[in-house]
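Changelog-linked ticket: 4'-deoxy-4'-aminopyridoxal-5'-phosphate example.
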Amino acid sequence: MSFNQWLTQRIEKTKQAGLYRGLRTMSTAPQPKMVVNGTERIIFSSNNYLGLANDPILIEKALKTLHKFGLGSSGSRLTTGNTEWHEKLEQRIANFKNTETALLFSSGYLANIGVLSSLPEKGDVLLSDQLNHASIIDGCRLSKAETVIYQHTDMNSLEQKLKETQAYTRRFIVTDGVFSMDGMIAPLDQMMKLAKRYDAYVIVDDAHATGILGEGGRGTSEFFGVSPDVTIGTLSKAAGVEGGFVTGSRVLIDFLLNHARTFIFQTAIPPVSCAAAYAAIDIIEKGQEKRVRLLRRITIIKNNLETMGFKVYGQDTPIIPVIIGDAETSVQFSKKLQKNGIFAPAIRPPTVPNGESRIRITVTASHNDSQVEHLLTSFKNIGRELKIIS
Ligand code: PMP
């Protein structure tokens, strides 16, 4: 069998399992209305929660830095890729998160992998939420520690696992701050208490909470008033740019700088991205008005969908999962939304449990009232047509 025949067979299996994916092409900057595969759609699936990806202040800052520093950083942080902008941004992030210091990675994905593959040692155990993001799962797989899964956001299940794992040298609880597929907020206050009682450490991936939760948008730690041992974040969602970071104590950052392979062997993000992200954090910190606007939209969408009779999961976060049921109907629903000019994807097993296929709406502070109204009217009409609501 030739190389390509072998791969064709494998991709056929992916298709048969209904897991085949393709790309769609965007021809406009990230904003509520975008041209997708040549057709204008209202986007309800973006992580650009505060609308910063196309913000003029960020663009201006980026252009100035671009002219001085050029494009790529041309090296890893430990060789020639470390510019004053990387250091300025790290100081800004640490100050924003109220931690001693911060370390930049090229993405949130690589930050998770870097932390989880280097921090726990052989003989340790990682207690991981059942619905943690793929980058946490991959990080756990690369770790020398064992992994034990606890039920999603279930603190009784976590406590049970903590009781069962007393023989391990160290225990690390690892969780998403806001879960990407169901919009739930991890109960970090209870988790921190359990960690203290059972002598465990807490690692939080605040990718979806950074810029969103808490008065100053500092994430789950501010929302609950707690300080986890390690917090991971991304600059690619609410901050609208790219890059990941870890915040915590000076010794933690010193350790990661010396041991996290995704830090050591990766080319640093371009200085232009650092400068834009710096400007984004300034806006986020003072951006309470944007968060209030966003929360108002979240509340309107959730309340209206529930009143129509839809089952809606999640908490007060921009991720609004609307449960449709079987996978086929969810895909049909999403296609009908597209016909109505709306892009919101169907999420199916194995990403979510059987019978819980859903439309995953994400809303941003830059959606306007008429776009939200159009979304709600479309949901009502399609929901009735497909007999999901009466
Ligand atoms: N963690 C979570 C929970 C995420 O949803 C994502 C992005 N989908 C990441 C980490 C990865 O972040 P980045 O896009 O910066 O690699």
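Closing comment: Example verified and attached. Residues 107-109, 112, 133, 135, 176, 180, 205, 207-208, 234, 236, 244 surround 4'-deoxy-4'-aminopyridoxal-5'-phosphate (CB under 6 Å). The chain has a mean pLDDT of 97.
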